[in-house]
Amino acid sequence: MGVSGLFKVIDDSKLLTDYDLHDTRLIIDGSNLYHFLYNLPEEYGGNYDTYADTCKTFFATLKACKVEPYVVLDGGYDPDNQKWNTVVQRKESRIYNASKICKKGPDPIKPTVDMDDGNDPEWNTVLNRKTYKRARDVLKRENGTEVTKDHVWPILCEETFCHVLRELQIPHVKCPYEADREIAVLANMWKCPVLSNDSDFFIFKLEKGVIPIIHCLAKDIGMTLKHKKQTNTFSSLKEPATIPTDQEIVYITVKHYCYTSLIGRVNGQWEFLPILATFGGNDYVDFNKLKRFYTAICKKYEEKDLSLITKDKTRLKSLFLWSTGVKSETNAIDEVLEHVEDSEEEKLKLQDAIRYSLQSYKNIEDFPTMDVAKFFASDISKFDIGTMIDYVQEKSLPGRLLEMLRTCKMANSFLQNVAVNQRVIFNCQIEDMDEPSTYNCSRNIRKVLYGLTGKSKIEENDRQKIKIITVDITASTKVRFGTQYLDVPSLQNVPNDTVEKRQNIMFGTLGLNSKLIDSLPADPCATFLVGVLRFWWTNAEPKVTENHLSAAIIGMILLHSHSIRSDACETVKQQCLVPSIEQAIKVQDNDQVEQFVREMANEMDIHRNKHTGQAYWGNEEIKIIHGFSQLQTCYLSAVYLNQALMYPVDLPSPAVLFNCTLMYNVCRSLKTSKITDCSDNVCKSLETSKITNCSDNRFMRLETSEINDFADNICNSLETSENTDCSDIFPLKSPLHNLFTLWKTVVKTTESKDGVAG
């Protein structure tokens, strides 16, 4: 939810105190954290590899301080519709922000002279500047109203974040609906603090208080690890500090808030806080309906003093003074409604919303929809799923699916929203707002998913231009797989089908048939990815180019190369990869080519998150980005379907598949190249080269190049090439070359438009 302006008042009034965080449990607002940790360029889509690294290092920092994190994430939209209007308004706001990014192009981030950390030695990195800019946006003031920039988060962030939680074995759970109450109950039960930016936690009676995320990460992307008996050791989120000895206490200094500091400052009772939060305007109560009330109290308390700093916050100051003086909630409601000019029916709706909001802050031990503590303490296989849910159980989702939802094997609650609410709303991307929504491209995949729920129609809320419109989508009951038409099973019957049948439904939906599948190695994961690429290639509107396709495959292979090299240097468990790609990389017997792969992995580590240096975007740049945004919706919809089919295909994290800045740069460079198929040049010359460090050939000139982005390092060498198969990336007739050309051949093979029928 969140209370508008409250965080700034608390911060300005010095109610946040230093807190040494170590040797404790920590309840983390996961949905809040995974958004905040994405501090990368958002203009090109998602750089999920770097994002995953940032998430891992964040948890490594906590581990170094012996902090046990327990991550609790939001679930689906509440069926009571109390917050639906707020959800729609926020989505439209982000669509508008995405449209502005598309119009102005890349946003070079520059420090301003009035920022405290303008001379910070860490300032020159893109990640640190981006984080500081975001923190500044959150705290900015304009005309007395808090301004929070609506960032356009890449749509695979949650999926990537949950992969990291599983890989690191961080305890985590997804609640049925909004998780605020479950987080508050668990924190009080375990007597530990909460980590969140949600100002609702400033209202709850949290015994151990709340740590704002923004004060952990606002001034740079790192945190400082401190040893009690040693000098401080700086540790950024890029690289944790050295592990201390057992005798040392390691901690990070963060900011901490407890509700007692606020009520003590104003000499009030806790009961005034829910009144303040409710009438200040939150996700339940629309403050626009209370404007006459605000005018009245601002006039009444204009000359009164408040023991808090409320710069340019006349309304909030008056609310503090008014709410501390009301005798009861009933009196407060009556007084507010006297100033509302609306029909009796609308007043009753507003009154219900007010009471609902007030109740949501009180008696928190009584209102969670699931026992999170019991969940964390139990073996999930022995846990009674039926005690975890309310509305969901009434809609009779199968217990196996509920288990997958709660354990975040379904990272997103998309399926729950479909089955329970029969309505979904999409997260916007950076895309061409003059073209149809990028989600149109993947609609036929979702139609099969809708068919699994047994619903005949599902309401999709998607953008048209920069406004959200509602479209009723008819579910598919059959899937074409070659010459067959397979029945779409119900969710209840999915576990009864064989893995092979579920795979055929999956692959048929993506437009594959048995002949195409047999042409590929026996690798369901690779088959899935080829199917997604094929579906994208066939259904994209406007159509994507061959350069889009080449860049997408090149990106996946290079991310795998980087991951294999990184994991070889670490003792942690290697993340899941696509077996076909991993094998093609590891079986290379040419030392020079292996060196080339290592060099490219190093280059990518430096340059994959760089801006391109363009001053503006034209139509061509937007088309490139729009094409890859369509690919992401196809992949995400296919992931949802794979999850609903009980994982007939094991999939890796998006972190080893998509770096959209990289793909954009490769595609942009290929656009001016005479190469049409991208598989023959640099490595062919390596075969006769006596140089083993890959500084020869077309890469020799990179030593003096002023080009900053990785794509130009690869693709500028392609622009003057006359070759037709581009082995500047992969050696001719090597396993990598064969995989690259095979994938492209299968993707481009003419068949039916998609695998969906009926």
Topology:
Blueprint: H1 6-12, E1 17-21, E2 24-29, H2 30-36, H3 48-64, E3 67-73, H4 84-104, H5 126-139, E4 141-142, E5 145-146, H6 157-168, E6 172-174, H7 180-190, E7 194-195, E8 210-211, H8 214-217, E9 223-227, E10 233-235, E11 250-256, H9 259-266, H10 272-279, H11 291-300, H12 314-323, H13 329-337, H14 344-361, H15 372-377, H16 391-394, H17 399-406, H18 414-421, E12 423-425, H19 443-452, E13 457-464, E14 467-474, E15 478-481, E16 484-487, H20 499-509, H21 514-518, H22 524-539, H23 546-568, H24 579-586, H25 591-607, H26 619-644, H27 660-671, H28 682-688, H29 710-715, H30 735-748, E17 756-757
Parallel strand pairs: 2-3, 2-7, 3-6, 7-8, 12-13
Antiparallel strand pairs: 1-11, 4-5, 9-10, 9-11, 13-14, 15-16, 15-17
